[in-house]
Amino acid sequence: MLPIPPGAFRMGSPDEEDGHEDSECPTRIVRIARPFALGRTPVTFAEWDLFAEATGRYRPPDEGWGRGNRPAVNLSWNDTQAYLAWLRDRTGRPYRLPSEAEWEYAARAGTETPYPWGHDFGPGRAHGLHEGCDLGGECTVPVGSFPPNAFGLHDMLGNMWEWVEDCWNEFYLGAPGDGSAWLKGDCGRRVLRGGSWMDVPRQMRSASRNRNGVDFRCNDYGFRVARDL
After folding, report:
1. Which of 66, 77, 162, 214 has the fewest Cβ atoms surrounding its Cβ within 10 A?
2. In angstroms, what CA-CA distances link 210 with 25, 110, 112, 117, 163?
3. pLDDT per residue as tens digits for the range 117-171
4. 0.90 cut: is pTM over it?
């Protein structure tokens, strides 16, 4: 895991951003007052399988793509909560999902452009449905296959959608401004961020949002672990 420093950023996207959706507005300044830690990569099958073997819990299918250091997919939001509870019990440390604001702050790593590397997607940056991604539209790739952002985090965009803690709200009206999770709204659905191997670049922007039911599993849904410092 890597420490993420405190700071402020503009969350969401302006109307003129290519791929902008109404759920990404209104943009607003969010202040992350305290540092937190975030996984350098999403949780892998190797990490999930240790949990499954120790607890006898669900072992998600890998779709024939392989396990090991590929990101663990076919996971629901409720599955992530079981893993995090086990991790807290095993270590005594406050592991959790990141809030949606923490996730976007970490993904942007100090940038305001659609992608942390600039305005255009370009080849060799992230894994998705794009001419520069050989396996885009077919399967995941091992974590860390693409360069990290300025915070040292890999795969914040592309490869698989990542569950965060927040309940779904259609817009940011009334959202917390301190980086905490928004636990009001449609809590039967939770937010996912980052885009995946089957998504086009506009769905892999730093501001892009998705959502689904807490029990829904999909072969492009996984997660990344956060921890209070």
Report:
1. 66
2. 14, 22, 20, 22, 9
3. 999 998 899 999 987 777 889 999 999 999 999 999 999 999 999 999 999 999 9
4. yes
Helix axis angle for 45-55 and 77-91, nearest 10°, is 70
DSSP per position, 65-92: S--TTSBP-S--HHHHHHHHHHHHHHH-
- Distance, in Å, from the CA atom of 218 to the CA atom of 202, rounded to the nearest integer, reads 20
Extract the tokens encoding 217. 């599993």
CATH of the domain at 77: 3.90.1580.10
Domain containing 39 equals 2-228
Whether the link from the prior residue into 26 is cis, omega within 30° of 0, is yes
Structural contact between residues 228 and 36, judged by C-beta atoms closer than 8 angstroms: yes
